[in-house]
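Troubleshooting log. The previous structure file for this entry was overwritten by mistake, so regenerating from the original sequence record. Sequence copied from the archived sheet and checked twice against the printout by T.R.
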Amino acid sequence: RDTPSSVGLPELHKTHKKGKDSSAEFKAFVRKHVYRNKWIWILGIANFFVYVVRFAVLDWGPTFLKEAHGMTLSNAGWTVAVFEIFGILGMLVAGWVTDKYLAGKAHRTSLYCMIGVAVFMTIFLYLPNNSPQWLMIIVLAMCGFFIYGPQALIGIAAANQATNRAAATANGLTGLFGYASGLVSGVGVGYMVDALSKTQPGKAWDYVFMMMIGMAVLCVFIFALMWKAKAHGYDELETKAD
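Regenerated output below.
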């Protein structure tokens, strides 16, 4: 009594298996649907840049607002907190839009979101130093709104592309790219600011934001490589089964 059919219920959609996979069969499946799946690698690379942008703002946002815009550290912290709150809202909206309007194609939602990230980060970069605090909060909050959508959807997209038989492996691979981004968003940004502060005083943070905008734009093109991809990889399995 450990399956739906054993208690008189129908099998869950696309989860019924004729038998347990052998170790060799499973390894072959993972190799094909994860390690040799171009969509998984594209999602992983995109995840790297998404995480760089997100954590660069979280790790260095308060310092940037204090040094470049003269905010108190307390107010700068609140501004970044709003970034997080809007990010949660952005995740919910991105998921809803993906299901309702894009037939589950999370990579397309992510592309649109990264366009939004690039636009609002550019606006934020060119805000005058004497801009009202509420305006800076709104613009930074919109950056959070758009960046958290791809962060939430990439893992789901990878799992769908690899199907439920290799979903965890695909998620782990894309997640590895995300965690590797810490070298850039943490150590890399700090080193960049220190180095540029010595050679171009007052311009260091501008270059950091230009770098993040560039990464957001690059991420748009990376997601564009997946434009024609299906929402999931189950169709291929069903075709072979037939």
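The mean pLDDT is 88. Archived copy saved in two places this time.
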